[in-house]
Design a protein that fits this description.
The protein is mainly alpha-helical. Helix content is 56%, strand content 0%. It contains six helices and no strands.
Length: 153
């Protein structure tokens, strides 16, 4: 993967997932070490809000749509809520306006879990997020005719 060929091979994808797994492990260890200091209701709220706003509307739209297409706004909501930038802004605002607290670990635990355990990341609006089966060529450049549209030599 480089600035011109924005795809991942099986190896680079696996290495990326290992990095996310390391971040997830650190977050889980911190949560375990501070479990008595975590406000678990806040933790659950922060953990859930990512999918309540970012995933569920698209999943519902997908199931209700006869052609299984979802509005672009669902992709925007998904990518916004599953962004590390959004999580950082949310955590910073929470720490500033509420208080810094260990419950904020829900954000990296959710995002790193999605990335490391399930291989999920930000989604292009041209590729269905909520589809039951993913394309076999997704993420790989297997030649000009079969690879993703942004594969270039």
């Amino acid at each position: 993967m480089d600035a011109r060929n924005r795809f991942e091979t099986k190896v680079t994808f696996a290495l990326s997932r290992l990095e996310w797994l390391g971040f997830l492990a650190v977050s889980l260890v911190l949560a375990f070490q501070r479990r008595s200091e975590i406000r678990w209701g806040v933790f659950a709220l922060l953990f859930a809000v990512i999918d309540v706003i970012g995933y569920l509307p698209g999943a519902i739209a997908h199931r209700r749509s006869p052609d299984r297409r979802v509005p672009k706004g669902c992709y925007v909501a998904y990518n916004t809520m599953h962004s590390l930038v959004t999580a950082g802004i949310l955590a910073g605002a929470w720490a500033l306006f509420v208080r810094p607290e260990w419950a904020l670990l829900a954000l990296p635990i959710h995002l790193m879990g999605d990335r490391a355990l399930f291989g999920n990341s930000l989604k292009p609006s041209r590729r269905p997020v909520w589809a039951a089966k993913a394309s076999r060529s997704h993420g790989r450049c297997s030649g000009a005719a079969k690879g993703p549209p942004n594969c270039r030599a």
